[in-house]
Amino acid sequence: MAEAEPSADGSDPTADGPGATGDSHREPLTFTLAGFREGFVAGTPVALGVAGYGVVFGVVAAGAGLSVAEAALMSATVLAGAAQLVAVELWADPIPVVAVVTTTAVVNLRYVLMGAALRPWFEDLTAGQAYASLFFFADENWALTVAALREGSTRGAFLMGSGVVLWLLWVAATVAGATAGDLVGDPAQYGLDFVVTALFLTLAAGFWEGRESLRPWLAAAAVALVLDALAPGQWYIMGGALAGAAVEVLTYDD
Amino acid sequence: MTDALALDPAVVAVILAMAVVTYGTKSVGHWVVGQVDLSDRVEAGIDVLPGAVVVAFVAPALANGGVAEWLAAAVTVVVARKTGNLLASLAVGVGVVLAVRPVL
Questions:
Q1: What is the least distance, in Å, from the CA of B9 to any CA of chain A?
Q2: Do A114 and B81 touch (CB under 8 A)?
């Protein structure tokens, strides 16, 4: 609380270039070690929170019959927390392959929109840099990256840097959970269930652009709430986000 | 218990299929948007996507929470706006949740 000086993390807006906001006349992105490092440092506190869930995933995966190596392989190659947890909940012998793979796709559909939202900035990177970075994106570091880019950061490697620290802790925590089993208990008892909500609220506070944001945000919230109440799973994220964008497209005047 | 280092080929195959599908969702939207020439109108929609994703994510989480979550959410937003510091708002938000939950 009091220990937080504004310079304590990478979200410090003064660390970056001119305050362009992702519009046409911004500085082009670079892809450098310094940018990677900045992402890595900024992503570390969030990755520590996510690691709490990595432990839970490891415990659940071991309970479902996966070996430590198999659980670690899933965390290392899939890197999508919600989808992995749902998949191991569905796990059985024999493995319901179609259900597992389809559910993975459905739970991850929001990434289609989140990846599309990165395009205006990643235009500046080579295809190799952009598509390698996309492997390492998850909800948390996507959000950190968009926040940094909107503040005018030109750090093209930020997504990869913040993604790599997330990946390292996610895999390590999976191994710890799958090995140690049930010793850890419920992450909610440490308040870790609130980390992602707090992260997204912080970002929303930064994304807010006054009256302009009101209409798309109300549409997104309303549709998300309705879908969450009516539809199973995580369709509400996709539906709410699309509704917000659709309202903006329909009410846009040149 | 299974051997810790065991890698069943069938399990590995399913995991790799999950990995391919996931990478597909992470990359396909990015790719499609680069293939077509978008009007200013559609670009305005893509520009509001990050905020819309965040709001769609958070609204049900808060609606499904209780007083502890709402209070922590309000404090998180205030700290975020006052300090602009992620670490501070995360710490305060989680701290408030932890402090208020046992009371309510």
A1: 10
A2: no
